[in-house]
Amino acid sequence: MQMLALYSIKGGVGKTASAVNLAAQASLSGRRVLLWDLDPQAATTFYLRNKPRIRGGGVEKLVKGKATLEKTIRGTELDHLDLLPASPEARDMDMLLEGRKASRLRKMLKPVSNDYDLVILDCPPGLSTLSEQVFSSVDALLVPVVPTTLSMRTLTQLQQHLDGEHITTPLWPFFTLVDRRRNLHQESMTGFHEQWPARLSANIPYASAVEQMGVHQAPLTQFAPRTAAAVAYRNLWEEIAGRL
Ligand SMILES: Nc1ncnc2c1ncn2[C@@H]1O[C@H](COP(=O)(O)OP(=O)(O)O)[C@@H](O)[C@H]1O
Ligand SMILES: [Mg+2]
């Protein structure tokens, strides 16, 4: 069971859109995928037409490893794709994880580790006890970056934070919300590869289809599979799959 996280210190950079679309692509490739919505705002849960609710004992039991995961995990309308929904009480998650050993998130999934090939985490923004657990649990951090100065600055801050804590989890940044007509975007993207050799080269364009995911409550594969954004997510997934 491999684990990836969509993570950034910043909000509004496309973590959730990317988590849902990459999970859909991965499930289409035949992998058994679990998408875990760690953000109490529950956008991923909403996109997959579920309700934010942790059945089988709530967040506390989940963290303690005593939840009935068969009840907590929900199916979705896509084959091979399941969802571990967010919960309004997910705000408590940070507190409950306090003082826990590293890789707790991975250990929480142990009872179902044979049922999934890939787990994708959709994370809330910010550095917290939860994010430290994410760093220690996953095989790589997928970091969406908008090609603007501030967004690229937070990527550097994240790398500095990981280096300072001696965390070796690889960072795989990629560009989202790319508008090639904007000079600033063009300029920000030049030289990125030299600075971030591990970056993923597929760029996700700014696209109204992505915004419409909220209307359709579905990943792009389900309602706009031939749009540029859907193709970009497929290319991004294939690049990621090649590294796993
Ligand atoms: N490629 C894109 N093109 C256009 N809008 C996007 C794109 N990616 C995300 N968005 C929109 O930007 C907003 C923030 O995206 P979201 O994925 O929720 O970010 P995060 O999870 O990092 O906070 C949402 O309204 C979403 O619909
Ligand atoms: Mg989000």
Question: Which descriptors apply to this entry?
Answer:
244 residues, alpha/beta, Rossmann fold, seven-stranded mixed sheet, binds adenosine-5'-diphosphate, binds magnesium ion, DNA_Partitioning_ATPase, Cellulose biosynthesis protein BcsQ, AAA_dom
Number of helices: 14
The major beta sheet can be summarized as:
7 strands, mixed
Kindly report how far apart the N and C termini lie. 11 Å
Helix content: 40-55%
Topology as H/E string? EHEHHHEEHHEHEHEHHHHHH
The general outline is globular
CATH architecture: 3-Layer(aba) Sandwich
Helix-strand layout with pairing:
Layout: E1 2-6, H1 15-28, E2 33-37, H2 43-47, H3 58-64, H4 69-72, E3 74-75, E4 81-84, H5 91-97, H6 104-108, E5 118-122, H7 129-137, E6 140-145, H8 149-164, E7 171-175, H9 183-189, H10 192-195, H11 208-211, H12 213-216, H13 220-223, H14 228-243
Parallel strand pairs: 1-5, 1-6, 2-4, 2-5, 6-7
Antiparallel strand pairs: 3-4
Helix pairs in contact: 1-14
Adenosine-5'-diphosphate is lined by residues 11-17, 43, 176-177, 204, 206-207, 210-211, 229.
Structure, explained:
With 244 residues, this protein is of the alpha/beta class. Helix 8 links the parallel strand 6 and strand 7 (171-175). It has a single domain (2-243), classed as Rossmann fold, CATH 3.40.50.300. The model has no long low-confidence stretch (mean pLDDT 95). The chain contains 14 helices and seven strands. 43% of the residues lie in helices and 13% in strands. The protein has helices at residues 15-28, 43-47, 58-64, 69-72, 91-97, 104-108, 129-137, 149-164, 183-189, 192-195, 208-211, 213-216, 220-223, 228-243; strands spanning 2-6, 33-37, 74-75, 81-84, 118-122, 140-145, 171-175. Bound molecules: adenosine-5'-diphosphate and magnesium ion.
